[in-house]
Design goal:
- By secondary structure, the protein is an all-alpha fold.
- The protein has a single domain, classed as Pectate Lyase C-like (3 Solenoid).
- The chain is built from 3 helices and no strands.
- It starts with a helix and ends in a 17-residue tail after the last helix.
Length: 183
């Protein structure tokens, strides 16, 4: 475990706590004067089409974005915590270095997504399509990792990494093989 992982988890839990006590914004995104990108924190944005946008300085933490089109969106380094993305098109999305814990990824299209170094503990990937997704160094619950290994296939077109390799799947295809110390 890296020195930064405990710090990142502590920051993540602090953010989750703050999101649970803040009032919910039911309006669409907020773009304040001087903001570079809109803020979708705790917004109701179900069905929104953000295809291909650079939202790397934005946040969708706590947002409800079911059945939305977030394909090819750049969200690297953002906070997606507690978002509900069920049924959304996330094909080709960049979620590198995101805090994505407790996110509903059920029935999403994560094909060709880049999820490198993503923290997704407590998230659900049931029914997600993951062909070509790169989960390298992602923090996932062990059950999610095992279940994703059962369906893992393909190579990510951006990183060139096989989905099975990025998930550290065992040769039998159903188990998780933890990394060796020093790897």
């Amino acid at each position: 475990m890296s020195l930064y992982q405990p710090l990142r988890r502590l920051l993540g839990f602090s953010l989750v706590f703050l999101l649970t006590i803040l009032p919910c914004n039911t309006a669409d995104a907020v773009l304040n004067v001087g903001d570079e990108v809109p803020n979708y924190v705790r917004s109701q944005i179900t069905g929104i089409d953000l295809h291909g946008q650079d939202l790397s300085k934005s946040s969708i933490a706590g947002a409800t974005a079911r059945d939305s089109n977030l394909s090819d969106v750049d969200l690297h380094g953002t906070v997606v915590t507690l978002a509900d993305l069920k049924g959304s098109n996330l094909n080709g999305i960049d979620l590198t270095d995101t805090l994505s814990d407790r996110v509903n990824f059920q029935k999403t299209d994560l094909r060709n997504a880049v999820l490198v170094n993503m923290i997704a503990s407590g998230s659900s990937f049931a029914g997600a399509q993951i062909e070509g997704a790169d989960f390298s160094y992602a923090v996932l619950d062990s059950d999610d990792q095992k279940n994703l290994c059962k369906i893992a296939e393909g190579v990510n077109p951006v990183t060139g990494i096989e989905t099975r390799v990025s998930l550290e799947c065992s040769d039998s295809g159903v188990g998780y093989k933890p990394p060796m110390p020093g790897d």
